[in-house]
Amino acid sequence: MGKYEGDPAWDDVVPIPQDDGEGALAQIAYADEYAEAMGYLRAIVAAKEHSSRVLDLTVEIISMNPAHYTVWLYRASTIFALDHPIQQEIEWVNEVALDNEKNYQIWHHRQLLIDHLYPSISSDPVALQKLANSEIAFLTLMFNSDSKNYHVWSYRQYLVRKLNLFNASEIKSIEALLKVDVRNNSAWSHRFFIVFSNPEYATPGSAATAYDPGIPDALLDCEIEFSKAAIFEAPQNQSPWNYLRGVLRKGGRPLATQECFASEFAKIESEEEVKSSHALDFLADLWNEEGETEKADKALKLLGDKYDPIRKNYWEWRRKALKAA
């Protein structure tokens, strides 16, 4: 006899058998328990029941198969139908997330919870700040385990937009992560999002890396200096070089404005004076923009022959593109 069969709390439910293939991965490890629980959930869904026992059942199923999207969705609809305390649900989700770091469904569920909660606190600055603080604290805990978790970063971007966290506190939080690991490309990307998507000055509808005339010059200068400082710290780290390119593009400034800086890390006159392959790449694009194709070609040849030979075919393709232009 299964866990639910014979239980007085479930006597009124006739389980619906599981279809072939559904939950196959979970059944490999939890054949009997999982199949029984899903049978009861199907019956519950068919009856459109939302009750506390539904929440208990979904907890059981999620513990066996945390990637079951349909179960998460039905749990959310039950939470909302019962007016179940959202903060209590978030605390439970925190525990599940810590045990299943790469699970997308958890973060989608969390987003549904915040969307549901937001209208009731949107006019209360204290409640909004309390929510922001608790969410950022938990995300920090997640990043302590994996600072490059894509699902967590995606959720953080959603949270920034939802709670309007385009502020100095969020910047400071990201800087702390970059101090721990200056090569964390996810943190660099998030910083770019915070700085250049701020609705206070960003042009609505502006593409992520497109020129935006609304960005203040002082802000552009600040971000250029920030990226350059990180490059000095780790010249062979591609992230700040990409960031620098993005900032220049956002401000409509040519790469040539940073020729002196980039040349500090790569001198094509002396093949031994190259401290960064990314500087060579930057200079190749810069010189190509300026019409100095011979210098650009030499930089690309150095990359293919000596400083990044594993991608020699790519650099040769770039050289051919120069000659064809």
UniProtKB/TrEMBL annotation:
Its protein name is Protein farnesyltransferase/geranylgeranyltransferase type-1 subunit alpha
Q: Which Gene3D superfamilies does this UniProt record tie to the protein? A: Protein prenylyltransferase
Q: Which family does it belong to?
A: Belongs to the protein prenyltransferase subunit alpha family.
Per UniProt, which keywords does this protein have? Magnesium, Prenyltransferase, Repeat, Transferase
Q: Does the keyword Magnesium apply?
A: yes
Which E.C. number(s) belong to this protein? Answer: 2.5.1.58, 2.5.1.59
Q: Does the keyword Magnesium apply?
A: yes
Where does this protein come from, organism-wise?
Calycina marina
Q: Known InterPro entries for this protein?
A: Prenyl_trans_a (IPR002088)
